[in-house]
Design goal:
Length: 379
């Protein structure tokens, strides 16, 4: 027992002697708890809605007004063409479109109003809840507007208007994911998570292991330049990362029946850009870590918030403002959006160039900073 107590004391002293380990053990969990407690919000808020008003009457404008006043929806555009609405759904500028056809006002007066709802099924959970909210609003509006008309007709015929009931024929279509299958929403996000975890941890652990074994110092006395060493350490992990992309996509298609509607070359291109950030973060973690244990804990301190604040499960639009700021500099946010756009929506670079530009920009900054820091440490 004496020996065990001595080992316990030694481990505790060694742990608390390292200030970085104390931060990881105590400060990191508090920060993560606070961030996730505020950021994880499943309430439906401000879903971007595009309206197609082909009727252009007072009745259709009343429908637009009713939808605009609900906090669960945000009317981002009112157009008169179905093609414009479909394009906004495809490039992720809108999550739902509602089409009010010609003759809506006349049919509404007869209790035969028809409305078409098209929703982005790539996010099946949000799509289902959005259609429910929109359907309730439309039905309530139709009931309120049509009840007055029906009441007048019934009263003029000497009939009671107490039980006048309005009718609305809703036609709902889920685009890109007709069955609203959760796998089609989640599996593309898993690709980003896998790349983040594997490439970042492998890079950080590999370099930390070299430092522990003393082989890194041996490499420093060789004619290798620091830049060559950085490239030699990161290139194998980038190749492994791209291989993981192909493996996950094959698994997604064969097992989960995830569609591949876009270009696979574009998918690998944006994956290579994303690897700049994960490998760069791995280099930074290895630079500030003396042991593999420190590298592992530090990596997970970065990985967990990156995943939770990326839109992988919880939409960024539902998060508070400070969490949206964090998500705006999180490369995983843009990578998951790009993967879902390419695989599920069949979007091309013309529709997603802003996300791609942000991903490349963040990747270059992170990898350049990490390389400079690592080479300075070697020097």
């Amino acid at each position: 027992m004496g020996a065990i107590r001595a080992i316990v004391r030694k481990e505790l002293r060694q742990t608390f002697r390292d200030k970085r380990m104390v931060v990881i053990l105590f400060v990191a969990p508090l920060v993560q708890t606070l961030i996730f407690g505020f950021a994880v919000n499943l309430d439906l808020v401000e879903q971007p809605l595009v309206l197609v008003d082909e009727d252009g009457t007072a009745a259709s404008r009343a429908v637009v007004e009713a939808l605009s006043h609900d906090e669960a929806l945000e009317v981002v555009a009112v157009v008169k063409d179905h093609g414009q609405a479909a394009a906004m759904l495809q490039d992720n500028r809108a999550a739902i479109s509602i089409e009010i056809p010609r003759g809506y006002e006349d049919k509404a007066e007869k209790g035969e109003a028809q409305v078409l709802i098209a929703v982005d099924g790539a996010d099946s959970n949000t799509a289902l809840r959005t259609t429910q909210v929109a359907g309730q609003i439309l039905a309530a509006r139709a009931s309120s507007a049509q009840r007055d008309k029906l009441s007048k007709v019934l009263t003029s015929r000497g009939l009671s208007a107490d039980n006048a009931v309005a009718q609305l024929d809703l036609s709902i279509r889920a685009m890109f994911n007709p069955q609203l299958r959760t796998a089609i929403f989640l599996v593309p996000g898993v690709l980003g998570m896998v790349l983040t975890v594997i490439t970042m941890i492998l890079t950080a652990m590999g370099l930390s292991r070299e430092r522990e074994l003393g082989t890194l110092e041996q490499l420093m006395v060789t004619p290798l330049r620091p830049s060559d060493l950085v490239l030699g350490k990161t290139l194998p992990f980038s190749i492994l990362g791209l291989a993981e992309v192909g493996l996950v996509v094959c698994l997604a298609v064969l097992v989960f029946d995830v569609p591949v509607r876009g270009s696979l070359w574009l998918l690998f291109a944006v994956s290579a850009a994303f690897l700049l950030t994960t490998l760069g973060m791995g280099l930074l973690v290895a630079t500030f870590s003396e042991t593999q244990q420190q590298a592992m804990l530090s990596a997970f301190f970065v990985i967990l918030p990156a995943i939770m604040l990326s839109g992988f499960v919880f939409p960024v639009e539902h998060m508070p403002l400070f969490a949206k700021w964090i998500a705006s500099i999180n490369p995983l946010t843009y990578y998951i959006a790009l993967v879902r756009g390419i695989l599920v929506r069949g979007a091309d670079i013309e529709h997603m160039w802003q996300d791609a530009a942000m991903l490349v920009g963040i990747g270059l900054v992170v990898f350049s900073t990490a390389s400079l820091k690592f080479r300075k440490r070697l020097a």
